[in-house]
């Protein structure tokens, strides 16, 4: 049986139908993905390790389907997870760092547990920017001491891969799994999803429980789906969202849990949508990328959306800093590391830094200035500088930023190119953002870091807290009207 046809560019519903009809089994699908990873990922370096139990798990789920029926849309579906998400199995959880290369989690992260309960096959762990990029200002996106440098499958070594969920996005783009889970503090899902022509959602902080995920900043961190279609992203988000404890884990109160992301998908929604164009955030785009966003605006108009162009945000001249991440990182990471078993040599940020100094040849290719900068804080979150920055972020990015524009013009969303501006605003406010393939830039300019800005470009929609359903419907309408995604040519 040629199972390859079932996995290349296959969406979750197609795979589910193949298993329900008996045309393919979960075991065959998992085996096909594993073979594809072995064949093509040597150059891309997106998958750190494959779950040695994946085939056995898939086989047991096939038996369960025959005897008891399907658990739901994720039954037997192979999902990849970023290497900072705990899984209580034979896979490591290291945040890409060799300091934790022998660390096995003692229990699943809430995200992993929800996927297992839904019947997903945890296929493997994906490479990532080490410590989610919070190691050094010089570290290359997608690089880790444990996994090397993840490359963009559309132009390995030439095109920007995005960070820090680079492995998750590149793997999904290259058809190494049905979907993947990434994490974002600021741009770490949206950037690589945009650069690798896939869909990514960073939800409202608190929508998805973060327990068991190696952190950066709890006021901004969130896991989220990375998929090839908006429908698949909606399926995963619906399975992962926390329907009970948003109030305990979010600064945004509780969410009305009525309705379904999946069943509410409707291309007609664009006819009632009002979308704002924040031109201030387009001014640094080169010609080709500006053409991508202008084409997206035209498509939205053609589909019946009301476009308000331009809209201004009072926060455009804000003076942003990284103090929230700096202070929360030490506090949150120390909490995570302190719970690791005694045989693991690392139990604090200070010990991470010391380990790296002792193994500098392997660990400090790009230095660890950011880790040292974070270690200089007290780790108690009592510094006034931290408290002031946290308050400033929420006010300027939220009340005087995203919310101001939405309320002033009665908008449903703001439109950005990839992570250009929108990711940072959404991160500081704790608000949701979704990106969907928006086209391709044929030419580009050399950007900081040496990568070229041409290649896949996503367009992103930002909304207020708990507006995931609206953003998903807008992205779905745009996707269905354009279908910009094409499969990368792997060699």
What does this structure look like?
The protein has 491 residues and is of the alpha/beta class. The chain contains 17 helices and 13 strands. The strands form 2 sheets. It has an 11-stranded mixed sheet, sandwiched between helices. A hairpin with a 3-residue loop joins strand 4 and strand 5 (148-149). Helix 3 (26-44) runs antiparallel to helix 4 (54-68) and helix 11 (323-337) packs across helix 15. The radius of gyration is 21 Å and the shape is globular.
Structural class: alpha/beta
Overall pLDDT score: 95
Low-confidence stretches: 245-250
N to C succession of SSEs? HHHEHEHEEEHEHEEHHEHEHHHHHEHEEH
From the N-terminal CA to the C-terminal CA, the straight-line distance is 23 Å
| Helical residue percent band | 25-40%
Total beta strands? 13
How big a fraction of the residues is strand? 5-15%
- Note the overall shape: globular
User: Biggest sheet, in brief?
Assistant: 11 strands, mixed
Strand order of the largest sheet: 1-3-2-6-8-7-12-13-11-9-10
Radius of gyration computed on alpha carbons? 21 Å
The total count of helices amounts to 17
């Amino acid at each position: 049986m040629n199972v390859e046809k079932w996995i290349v560019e296959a969406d979750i519903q197609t795979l589910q139908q193949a298993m329900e009809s008996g045309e393919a089994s979960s075991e065959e699908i998992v085996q096909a993905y594993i073979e594809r990873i072995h064949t093509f990922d040597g150059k891309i370096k997106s998958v750190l390790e494959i779950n040695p139990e994946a085939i056995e798990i898939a086989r047991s789920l096939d038996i369960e389907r025959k005897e008891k029926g399907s658990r739901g849309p994720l039954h037997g579906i192979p999902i990849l997870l970023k290497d900072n998400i705990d899984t209580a199995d034979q896979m490591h959880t290291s945040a890409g760092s060799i300091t934790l290369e022998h660390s096995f989690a003692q229990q699943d992260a809430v995200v992993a547990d929800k996927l297992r309960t839904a019947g997903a096959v945890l296929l493997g762990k994906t490479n990532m920017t080490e410590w989610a990029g919070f190691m050094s200002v010089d570290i290359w996106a997608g690089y880790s001491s444990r996994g090397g440098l993840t490359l963009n499958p559309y132009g390995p070594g030439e095109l920007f891969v995005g960070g820090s969920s680079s492995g998750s996005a590149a793997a999904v783009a290259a058809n190494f799994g049905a979907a993947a889970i990434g994490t974002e503090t600021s741009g770490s899902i949206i950037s690589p999803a945009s650069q690798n022509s896939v869909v990514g959602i960073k939800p409202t902080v608190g929508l998805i429980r973060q327990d068991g995920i190696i952190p950066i900043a709890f006021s901004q961190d969130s896991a989220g789906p990375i998929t090839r279609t908006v429908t698949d992203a909606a399926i995963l988000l619906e399975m992962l969202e926390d329907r009970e404890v948003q109030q305990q884990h979010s600064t945004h109160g509780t969410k009305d849990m009525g309705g379904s992301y999946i069943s509410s998908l409707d291309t007609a929604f664009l006819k009632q949508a009002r979308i704002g164009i924040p031109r201030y955030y387009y001014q640094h785009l080169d010609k080709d990328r500006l053409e991508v966003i202008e084409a997206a605006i035209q498509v939205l108009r053609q589909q019946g959306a009301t476009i308000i162009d331009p809209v201004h945000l009072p926060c455009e001249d804000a003076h942003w800093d990284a103090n929230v991440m700096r202070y929360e990182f030490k506090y949150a990471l120390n909490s995570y590391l302190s719970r690791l078993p005694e045989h693991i040599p690392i139990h604090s940020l200070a010990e991470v830094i010391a380990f790296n100094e002792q193994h500098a040849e392997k660990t400090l290719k790009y230095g660890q200035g950011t880790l040292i900068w974070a270690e200089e804080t007290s780790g108690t979150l009592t510094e006034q500088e931290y408290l002031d920055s946290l308050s400033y972020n929420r006010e300027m990015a939220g009340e005087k930023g995203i919310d101001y524009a939405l309320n002033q013009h009665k908008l449903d969303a703001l439109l950005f190119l990839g992570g250009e501006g929108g990711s940072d605003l959404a991160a500081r406010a704790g608000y949701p953002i979704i990106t969907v393939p928006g086209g391709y830039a044929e030419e580009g300019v050399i950007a900081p870091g040496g990568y070229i800005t041409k290649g896949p470009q996503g367009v992103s929609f930002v909304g207020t807290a708990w507006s995931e359903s609206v953003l998903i419907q807008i992205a779905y309408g745009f996707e269905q009207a354009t279908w910009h995604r094409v499969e990368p040519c792997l060699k």
